[in-house]
Design a protein that fits this description.
alpha+beta, OB fold (Dihydrolipoamide Acetyltransferase, E2P), globular, 1 helix, 6-stranded mixed β-sheet
Length: 84
């Protein structure tokens, strides 16, 4: 594996770990991630995709958008919110 590919892979893994760390961290110190809207699951929970992984979240807006639209995934202790 060449150096640019290795650096890119390391960077992507670091971002995924950041989602998990923010989810376990302080409720007052959240982290924002640029994600893509995926729609809703069968229970009506919003779904977003970040770095190839799909997450359920709580929706902060009262409308829906087209799939793969850029959204902000806000993660803090035990809670994921999506805003668009």
């Amino acid at each position: 594996m060449d150096l640019p590919s290795k650096l890119n892979e390391t960077s992507n893994l670091s971002r995924l770990n950041a989602v998990d760390a923010a989810y376990k961290g302080s409720p007052y110190a959240g982290t924002n991630f640029n994600a893509k809207w995926q729609g809703y699951d069968t229970d009506g929970n919003p779904l977003v995709k970040y770095q190839g992984d799909t997450y359920t979240a709580k929706q902060l807006s009262m409308h829906s958008i087209v799939g793969n639209t850029p959204v902000v995934l806000r993660v803090a202790r035990g809670v994921r919110f999506v805003n668009f």
